[in-house]
Structures are given as C-alpha cells and as structure tokens.
Amino acid sequence: MNTSVVIVCAGNSTRMGGVNKILLPLGDRLVIGVTMQAFQKCESVSEIVIVARESDIPAIKAEAEAAGITKLAACTTGGKTRQESVINGIKMISKDSQLVAVHDGARPLVKPEHIEKVIKDASVFGGATLGVPVKDTIKTVDDGLITDTPPRSSLYITQTPQIFKRNLYFEGIDFALEHGLDFTDDCQLVEAIGGKVAMTTGDYTNIKITTPEDIKLAEVLMKL
C-alpha cells in the first residue's frame, strides 16, 4: 500500500533536561536517523514527513542525508499540542497516499517487519496500531482507593506507528476539529467516529525514549 509516514518530534523534551532526545547519539546515528531508517527500509512506505521544532529542522535534514534517507519528502513545524503537530504533518503528505502512518520520533527501535504488519492490518480493518500485551496487573484508582482490576488479557500497551486509511483518518480529524476535541492518541480520532482499529502485536523493544536512562537501554537493545 502507498503509505505516507508522519514522524512527530516537536516536543519540548522536558524530561531530558531540555536536550532534544531525537538529536542524541544512538549507535552510529542520531535517534531520529535510526527512526527514519526503519521506515526507509519498508517497501510499503512511499514518503516520510517530519514534524519538529523549527530550530531542529536543519539538523534533522542533515541527519537524513547522512543516514541515506531518500524518502524524506518534507519537514514542517509542530503545533501547541500533539494533535496540532500531526495535522501540520498531514497537510504535507502526497495526494496519492492511500494510508497515513503516525509515529513517535522517539521510538527508533521499531522494526520494519512490524511496520509492514501494521500497514497490512490497516489496509484490511481501516486502522491499526502496534502494541504489546500488558505484563503487570493493572488497577483503576479513584481518590487513592482501588475501584477495579480489569482483566489483564484484554489490556495492551499502545505503541506507534498507528496507521489508517486516508479518508477514515481525515474524517476523524474533521470530527475532532468540529467538536473541539484534542486527542493524545491517533487511534482515538478513528474510535470517536466508530471506526475499527486493529491491535497489531509487536514487541517490547519498541520503547519510547523519554529519559536519559532510555538512551542507555536503547543502546543495549540495538545489540540484541
């Protein structure tokens, strides 16, 4: 399927002490370079759009060139919220795109074979996201007291990429804008209009880098 990928990396990196995590070294590349390389290797991916802070765009473009990324179509700036940032990226994708994928720039260890699995599931169901089953017992808590223990068998940790048929995703964006809704998860856009989203099982190495310790963990995971 002809898939456009929007990689979102416009956050403030407050938990990294203000250092932009996507520009930190990881192996022989920077974090964003490793992330882009995963999508570069996917036959189903036709283009990559980066959403980032304006000040970081020159460094991202330089890293793309150094990492051999030929599918980078555009870079644009982020908005005040994640949803606004994604929409800014969506505006830059090709009109020929059949599927839209949204991925966190700080998830560099996503595997190309898992990306292709999500693309395949999205083409069948309309939407799909990568994720893994919850390992721990989860409690719901209200005012400091446990109110429920949901069955672990039905709980998943949601990752990215999250991929949707173009028309379905655009319908979700329109619905959110019309109703003043601001979601932190792209699946919620499609869920809000009654669309189906498949959970595609990936693995636990697809971590999101949010703290300095995560970089060290990612370096170890890359060697497995």
Strand content bin: 25-35%
Helix content: 25-40%
Fourth-level CATH superfamily = Spore Coat Polysaccharide Biosynthesis Protein SpsA, Chain A
Principal-axes shape call: globular
Question: Whole-number average pLDDT?
Answer: 95
Name of the level-1 CATH class = Alpha Beta
| CATH architecture descriptor name | Alpha-Beta Complex
C-alpha end-to-end distance: 30 Å
Major beta-sheet overview: 7 strands, mixed
Q: Could you state the order of secondary-structure elements as H and E?
A: EEEHEHEHEHEEEEHHEH
**Class by SSE composition:** alpha/beta
Strand segment count: 11
Strand order of the largest sheet: 5-4-1-6-10-7-11
Over the alpha carbons, how many angstroms does the gyration radius reach?
17 Å
Total of helices: 7
Could you list the spans in which at least 5 consecutive residues all have pLDDT below 50? Answer: none
The number of domains is 1
Condensed summary:
The protein is built from 7 helices and 11 strands. With 224 residues, the protein is of the alpha/beta class.
SSE order and pairing:
Blueprint: E1 3-9, E2 25-26, E3 29-30, H1 31-40, E4 45-52, H2 57-66, E5 72-77, H3 82-90, E6 99-104, H4 112-125, E7 127-133, E8 140-142, E9 145-148, E10 156-165, H5 166-178, H6 186-191, E11 198-201, H7 212-222
Parallel strand pairs: 1-4, 1-6, 4-5, 7-11
Antiparallel strand pairs: 2-3, 6-10, 7-10, 8-9
